[in-house]
Structures are given as structure tokens and as C-alpha cells.
Amino acid sequence: MSTDVDDWYANADRWHDEAARLREILEGCDLEERFKWRKPCYAHDGSNVAIVQSMKSFLALMFFKGALLDDPKGVLEEQGKNSRSARRLTFRSVADVERMAPTLRKLVKSAVAVETKGLTLPERPELELVAELQERLDADPTLKAAFEALTPGRQRGYNLHFAGAKQSKTRASRVEKLVPKILAGKGLRDR
Length: 191
Fold this sequence. Notes:
The chain is α+β, with helices and mostly antiparallel strands. The protein has 2 domains: about 5-115, Aspartate Aminotransferase, domain 1, CATH 3.90.1150; about 130-185, no CATH class. About 50% of the residues lie in helices and about 15% in strands. The chain has helices at about 5-10, 15-25, 95-115, 130-140, 140-150, 150-165, 170-185, and strands spanning about 30-35, 40-45, 45-55, 60-65, 75-80, 85-90. A 6-stranded antiparallel sheet has the order 1-2-3-4-6-5. Helix 4 packs across helix 5 (about 140-150). The protein is elongated, with a radius of gyration of 20 Å. The mean pLDDT is about 95.
């Protein structure tokens, strides 16, 4: 066990009791406990399986390949409308954790099986960039190279942000505003 993980659980100001009970259950699931992305993360044979998320209105256990898990009770929730593979189990009380314990163990077992079998999600379709971004990239080879050097997730994040504007003028303005970040190799939410 990592002292960082111990510290996270000990200092959890929100969902402390729920997190402690969740950890007890996860410790019985033969997973490796790590500290990644400033959160307790659970792995099997070096592959990330799940991560604990302390949110404002709930505690969650997010399964990285949740879309591939056997979920006959339909308890896994999507992270958001643009989430492709992650699914999470949410808790709002210790009683929720207790009630969901058998299902949680089955989901962990399913997640381990997914990793053991080496299952992956189908390739994501090629990203179709909004016209305003594509035009700007076509006009500036340096910007295009910087954008293409970003991770696929960062590229997608920018594209979703730009596409969120209804008017072309606003999309173009968003692109221009974020050109320096793209050139710096940073994602939309990077500092």
C-alpha cells in the first residue's frame, strides 16, 4: 500500500466513511492499490481497473473499461455524454456501499476478466474537426503540427469545446483565443 493512498483515505473530508468502507471491500478483491492522478487507483497485473472519485454529491468507483463490463443490473452510469468507455458506480452513504458490495465485487471480477482477456474498445472514429478549427490549421502549418502533437484526448477536448458554440463567429473566436495553449502543447484544461 502507498502512503499517499493512506493519506488520501485518512484526510478525505468528504465521503470519509463511505470511502473507508469502499476501500475495505476493494482490499478483498485482489487488486493492486496505487496513487494516480491524485486519487486511489486499483489495478490488476499492472493494468488500471478502477479509480475512486470523490465528487460533490457522491463518491464513485469509476471503471476505466466499464462499457465492456458485464452489468446485468444496469448499475453503472456514464461519466458524461462524451464519455466512451468509463462507467461508474456511485454511493451517497455507507448503506449504499454495503448494499452494493456484492454487485461491486462482481463488477471488479468482470473488470479483471476484461484486462486478463486483453479486451479493448473498438477504435474511435477519426475526429472530424469543426470547420473553423480545420480552416485555421490549414492556414498555419506550425499550429497544425502543434495540434497533431497533442494526445487524441486533448485534440478531442478542444474540438468539443469549439463545437459547443452555436455561431461560427464564436467558434472562430474560441479557436483564436486558444491558439497559444495549443502551440504550448497544453490541453484545454491544462495550466
